[in-house]
Amino acid sequence: MTKEILHTDQAPAAVGPYSQAVAVPAGGKVVYLSGQIGLEPSTGVMVNDTFEAEVRRAFANMTAVVTAAGGTLAQVVKLTLFLTDLSKFGQVNDIMAELIPQPFPARSTVGVKELPKGATFEVEAILVI
Length: 129
What we know:
One of its GO terms (molecular function) is deaminase activity. The protein is α+β, with helices and mostly antiparallel strands and 129 residues long. 22% of the residues lie in helices and 24% in strands. Helix 2 links the parallel strand 4 and strand 5. Helix 1 runs parallel beside helix 2 (89-99).
């Protein structure tokens, strides 16, 4: 799958590790992943030692689902991030830039009042294989 990264100077530049838009050719398998939070798969208990640990566990859970779908993180074309505290947006950007390969997918970030199981972060994805 080839991702075409779209950019225009007529809209604000990306503020972090994401692209304004991503286009993919028709014909691939599109996979819509449900949101993942920082639950430890073996115990079902939230990883909440630190915000960073919770975010990394959520991304690890998302990666496991991507792999189970037969894909890789390079095939993610859209991410949606949910945070209960938008002041932690920069921390998520840093972790995402480390884990997600370039060219970065399109992304939305949403501030929410609360998330399941007391999570403070959730990530969902769309990938094309």
